[in-house]
Amino acid sequence: ENFTLNKITSPYRQGKSETFIKNTLIKKKVDKKIINKTLIDFEKNNPNWKIESAKKFANKKKLGRFGDIQNKEKDLAKMARAGFDYETAKKILGYDWLVFMVDFTFK
Fold first, then answer.
1. How far apart, in whole angstroms, are the C-alpha atoms of residue 46 and residue 32?
2. Cα–Cα distance for residue pair 76/89, rounded to 1 Å
3. Burial status of residue 16 (CB atoms within 10 A of its CB: 0-12, 13-18, 19 or more)
4. Has this prediction a pTM greater than 0.85?
5. Rounded distance between C-alpha atoms, residue 16 and residue 50, angstroms
6. Could you give the C-alpha distances from 45 to 4, 29, 31, 37, 101, in angstroms and in order?
7. Contact indicator for 21, 3 with CB cutoff of 8 Å
8. Which of 70, 69, 88, 67 is nearest to 79 (CA)?
């Protein structure tokens, strides 16, 4: 478990997603039960770690409000490929204010 905790803490500081961390640990042949238990314990001690990690990733890659806001779709795609969920990516990139309007035409 100490090995697993170290393998969670280091990538978190680098701006890696939960998915990336889980996949790395699975490749290292760590049991999934231990991974899940350690992630739950880590989240209890660091409740906002996913948001903080996503901010670090976006800042490092100059995405969203940390870079050029014109590339919305590309930025969201980069966050998704890195393993961050859509809602977190939208919030971090500053796109949570986006409202997609539907054009209604009345005849």
1. 20
2. 6
3. buried
4. no
5. 9
6. 15, 25, 22, 13, 40
7. no
8. 88
* pLDDT in single tens digits along all 107 residues of the chain: 788 888 999 999 999 999 999 999 999 999 999 999 999 999 999 999 999 999 999 989 888 776 776 788 888 899 999 999 999 988 888 876 544 433 344 44
Q: What is the largest CA-CA distance in the chain?
A: 66
**How far apart are alpha carbons 39 and 21 in whole angstroms?**
10
- Could you write out the DSSP letters of every residue in 51-80? HHHHHHHHHHHT-GGGS-TT-HHHHHHHHH
| Residue of 95, 87, 97 lying closest to 63 (CA atoms) | 95
